[in-house]
Amino acid sequence: MAYGGHRGAVVVESLGSVGPLIGSPWIYALVALSVLLDVFLPVLPSGVLVIAAATAAAAGSGAAADAVPHDVPDILLLLLCAATASVLGDLAAYRLAWRGGPRLDRAIARSRRLSAAQERLGGALARGGGALVVLARFAPAGRSVVSLVAGAAHRRVREFLPWSALAGLSWAGYSVALGYFGAQWLGATWLATGVSLLALLGAGAGAAYLVRRPAEASGAA
After folding, report:
1. What is the pTM of this model?
2. Any residues with CB less than 8 A from the CB of 111 and at least 6 apart, and which?
3. Distance from the first to the final alpha carbon of the chain
4. N or C terminus: fewer CB in 10 A for the chain?
């Protein structure tokens, strides 16, 4: 028991090197801001922050909890924070594109990728199936493309918002689960964080393949 508690304390100290806020309530603001803004700047490490915070939460749970000297994130609050910020970011990009006007329309028309995404997304939302929105949330920059295209195409918010909420909750739940359960199974170490991050990147690569596949198939036809 003592060893497990000591290890939990050391891990939280190590995770603190990611940033001084990892062990304070401000971690929620940092996660929310990163998730909110990465729809515009996909290079932001929002997934890394969520996984690191969830790993810290695992380090402070169970038998190790009494020995951890710092506050650690609450797992449910972290999940809600990441999911809510994801939806708000999607809506911000959606509204910005909605008001983008002819200049944005011309930019989309010049991009074969954006034009194809606009056509596929419009059809998916019109049929009441927004699996594309959920898949794109995991793909690199896919969230940005989908949100901007939905706004530029003036899709109705009631068509887009429920799928954006499902996508945000799915991504946040997956990321939090990777960090938390990865630490539970592998030990709350940097190895667990690294494996969890690889799993998140793997899901992104798989989602990107599935998003592109129908377009490639239709192009071949």
Report:
1. 0.75
2. none
3. 62
4. C
pLDDT along the chain (221 residues), means of 10: 39 46 75 91 83 80 46 83 95 88 65 63 60 85 83 84 94 92 76 82 83 51 41
| Angle 217-220-221 from CA coordinates, rounded to 5° | 85
Query: Do residues 59 and 187 lie in contact, with contact meaning Cβ atoms separated by under 8 Å?
Result: no
Pure H helices in the chain: 2-15, 26-37, 46-59, 75-98, 101-110, 112-126, 131-138, 142-152, 157-186, 190-220
Amino acid at 132: L
The alpha carbon torsion through 165, 61, 34, 41 (nearest 10 deg) reads -80
**What is residue 152's predicted lDDT score, i.e. its pLDDT?**
80
Q: How many residues does the chain have?
A: 221
79 vs 10, 118, 135, 184, CA distance in Å?
A: 24, 30, 19, 17
